[in-house]
Amino acid sequence: MEDALQLWKEMERDASVQGNDITFNILFDAASKSGNFPLAERIYKEMESRNIPFTRFHHVSLIHFFGLKEDPDGVRAAYKEMVEAGEMVDTTVLNCVISSFFKCREVESAMRVYEHMKGIQAKADGFSSKSHHAENATDVLKRLTKISKTCPEFRPKLQELAPTAPDGRTYRTLFEHFAVKTGDFDTVAMLLEDMRTFDVVVNGGIFLVLFKAFKKHGGYVGTDWTADRLSTVLVALLEDLDDGVKGLYLDTWLMMWALRAFGQCTSKEVVLEVYEEFRSRWRLVEDKAQFMDAYLNNLLAGKDGAVHRERFATRMTTRATRK
């Protein structure tokens, strides 16, 4: 954060280049995520004093800011301000609202937003996140927003064109709460069924979250997170990999959590079988393949995380040397 501020000061002082809306959005977002809320508020006030107009990115960052502060009323106010400013509300915005409410521990509020997203029927003449690249969708939203601000009376109809259906990011956020945090398997099962209804692909991030949940909540008598259900998740992952689902691949982090989950819920023999399934499908460079071999040996020896800590320490040493 200090480096970013220094660069901004040098840019304005030495190069006589004034920061614009993009500059301030980056600074505000960085300050928020670092937990330096007073600094974020000063950056916000500096934007106001310079009469820098807010874009949809600033509004979303502000919603996220209040979520990090665990201020639910602030989340609502920031969302209301965005709507009143004539900005189009799409899936990205609603995902941010859901995530922010979870950070504020307002689960019911988060689920009301999700139910709202489910209840909005897709328009035949609208556009979906699947039929447009992200860049094109953003461009269309900018155009809709421009028209909305120029002709407010058209806003309700224009809003109907914006995609607001749940997507992969929506479900990952929901699973992080109901799967990993609370272990509510019934709700997770319901959400998986919703994904089928909305034809949302289970991506690598969601598989990873599910494996984390089995690691945390599985392996106990009476748990809903059983070995059989874990095997079902693995079969789904392997089938999607074999079918060549776009964007899905085996990275070290995903495999590590899968192996941890099977280590928690099954036996060492099963862990080895799962590892061989991964080995036959992965496309790793040599050093990462060696890392996975070392990780497996440590996991089976009951030293889960030892290789990861060693690797992290090596990276930190390398960075320090470079500096």
Summarize the SSE layout with pairings:
Elements: H1 2-13, H2 21-33, H3 37-49, H4 56-68, H5 72-84, H6 91-103, H7 107-119, H8 134-150, H9 155-161, H10 168-181, H11 185-197, H12 204-217, H13 227-242, H14 252-265, H15 268-279, H16 286-300, H17 306-322
Question: Top keywords for this entry?
Answer:
Serine Threonine Protein Phosphatase 5, Tetratricopeptide repeat, 17 helices, 323 residues, single chain, mainly alpha
Brief rundown of the structure:
The protein has 323 residues and is mainly α. The chain has helices spanning 2-13, 21-33, 37-49, 56-68, 72-84, 91-103, 107-119, 134-150, 155-161, 168-181, 185-197, 204-217, 227-242, 252-265, 268-279, 286-300, 306-322.
Written description of the protein model:
The structure is a single chain. It contains 17 helices and no strands. The chain is mainly alpha-helical and 323 residues long. Among the domains are: 2-122, Serine Threonine Protein Phosphatase 5, Tetratricopeptide repeat (Alpha Horseshoe); 201-283, no CATH class.
